[in-house]
Amino acid sequence: MRVIDSNGQMLGIMATSQAQRMAERQGLDLVEITPNAEPPVCKIMDYGKFRYDESIKAKQQRKAQKTTQVKEIKFHPGTDTGDLEHKLRQIRQFLSEGNKVKLTLQFRGRENQHKELGEDMIARVLDMLKDECFVEQAPKTQGKIHGCLIGPPRVKKGGGKPQISVAPPPQTPAETPPADPANGGGIRISIG
Q1: N or C: lower Cβ tally within 10 Å for the chain?
Q2: Nearest one of 25, 27, 24, 2 to 13, comparing CA atoms
Q3: CA-to-CA dists, residue 92 to 66, 87, 168, angstroms
């Protein structure tokens, strides 16, 4: 097997028993790093310390990982203005925390006959939040429930700020090319 010492220096290819004796003399362990290599690669190291370091790295990765939750806000076709404003504040708070929000509107009783009122309610909420969210699932009706899924606005890669494209100013009549009477009044284009 190919052996690497605790400092990362290559010791070369040697028998397993010889590598184990070297590790025991140093008070360390012989750990197989890549078993599929030809010959297998082993390293002389403190295995307990190695496992501890790996667990610390894994813990830091889990800590750094951002978990998003899906919060649900329920509406009814007759949701009043005050309630709607309160629900909008909740939605904005959830979005600012980086969570996704599921908007659901449940039809009860005779409300099933006027589903367009509920659809209008969800459309109105989405219109009020159009600059503050990204619609991940478009509104759709499934049985007695009409809903959609929204998330925080997506940031464009390469700078972190949304890019704004500026349209060129409209041409003034003085800048428009003259009409070509031979072409039926169209624009004259010269190639040359």
Answers
A1: C
A2: 2
A3: 19, 9, 34
What CA–CA distance (Å, rounded) separates 67 from 93? 16
Convert the pLDDT of each residue in 150-186 to its tens digit.
888 877 665 554 443 334 444 544 455 555 555 555 5
Query: pLDDT means per 10 residues in the chain (192 residues)?
Result: 88 90 90 88 90 91 80 83 89 88 84 75 86 85 84 68 43 50 53 54
Query: Between β-strands 100-106 and 70-75, what pairing exists: parallel, antiparallel or unpaired?
Result: parallel
The pair of three-digit structure tokens given for residue 8, joined into one six-digit string: 């990362």
Distance between CA 50 and CA 44 in Å, rounded?
Answer: 11
pLDDT at res. 108: 79
Residues in the chain: 192
| Start-to-end CA span in the chain (Å) | 74
User: Rounded distance, CA 125 to CA 115, Å?
Assistant: 16
